[in-house]
Amino acid sequence: SQPPSYSEPGYSTLLTGAWPEINDGPTINLDYEEIPNFTQDNLFTAAKRAGLRTGISGYYWFEKLVPQQDVDLSFYTPGEDAAADREVVDAALPWLDDVTPGIFLVHIDQVDYAGHHEGGAASDNWLAAANRSDTLIGEILAKLDLSQDTLVVLSDHGQIDAGGHGGQDPITLVEPFVMAGKAVIPCQYPDIQMVDVAPTLAALIGANLPASTQGSVKTTMLS
Length: 223
What we know:
Layout: H1 7-16, H2 20-23, H3 43-49, E1 53-59, H4 61-65, E2 73-77, H5 82-92, E3 102-106, H6 110-117, H7 124-142, E4 150-154, E5 177-181, H8 197-205
Parallel strand pairs: 1-2, 1-3
Antiparallel strand pairs: 4-5
Helix pairs in contact: 5-7, 6-7
């Protein structure tokens, strides 16, 4: 990714495929009341145009960022800890029982919470939060059939060991990207750019690329 390594700029880049200088998303983390809707085309508007179901379960910033006319199913919470993540996943799991094609964002936040409030990225609490998050991802995976579904796991930023992010520390600008399931060619690939996520997922679901994307479809990953 690129600075600033805040969540709202990261979400904006991930969902529009454009870097902060043109995606019109917030350049810092704004308070809930101040967060604007995306003005740029994004992955959810593209999915709706393609006739897909859409859903978001997660932190309530997404309620403001993503135009809600493009979200069919939603659950939002102001909570960021393990208890909030439990509610987020519980809300989303029933959506996955419906085999109608769709795209769903399930936002698990407790690793970030541990970094900010429970000792930082080098703490045991961070590792415990990561393990709990892994268990939640396992629950989501158990609902999927990877012969016809695709699971993508990624992050919006990293954190320094002491906890925190927002600047250009290299550790805050490298995130995981894991994709498995239908149409994915298993391999260890070179690093991609954050702007490549939206166009690649748009191609995967059969939607148009978000109009302002600066990234590319990672065709080498897809069959």
